[in-house]
Amino acid sequence: MILVALGSNRTGPWGSPRETVERALLALDRDPLKLEGASRLMMSKPLGPIEQSPFVNAVAKIGTQLTPQALMEKLHEIESSAGRRRNVRWGPRTLDLDLLDYHGVIQDDPGSLILPHPGIAERIFVLKPIVELAPSWIHPVLEESAAALLSKLDAGGEGAEV
User: Fold this and answer.
1) Which residue in the list 10, 84, 101, 123 is annotated as catalytic?
2) Alpha carbon of 55 to those of 45, 74, 136, 137: distances in Å?
3) Which of 13, 17, 83, 110 is within CB 3.0–4.6 Å of 94 for a Cys-Cys bond?
């Protein structure tokens, strides 16, 4: 199973954050990618020290023959098409696409793509959509389901449906 997180909190060439995430889902269904499913859209508080607008988030399940690194490059191309500029870490963005899991591959080589994504277990805005989209998914390193990981976090109203 290949899972990709989507997020936007800044209007860009593809429209509002909601429109941008919706259009990004369409982009994840163009050769060499195949969209196999997507969670509902939800709102979340931004991470990091910079004050900014809430995010519209979702998680998509895709299929592809691309390698993890080639897929990451494709995701960066889609982000660029949506106006993403990597100026400020944790800053507002038109589109953020994160490769969460690639068929359970574990890759922890500093300076390269880390799989699974290291922030999954701490992010309600990732776990809630995974629970909805892929309830049988198990974290490849922690060997726990998204529902079990989510139960350890205090949602506090986080992740309301858009």
Assistant:
1) 84
2) 6, 22, 26, 24
3) 83
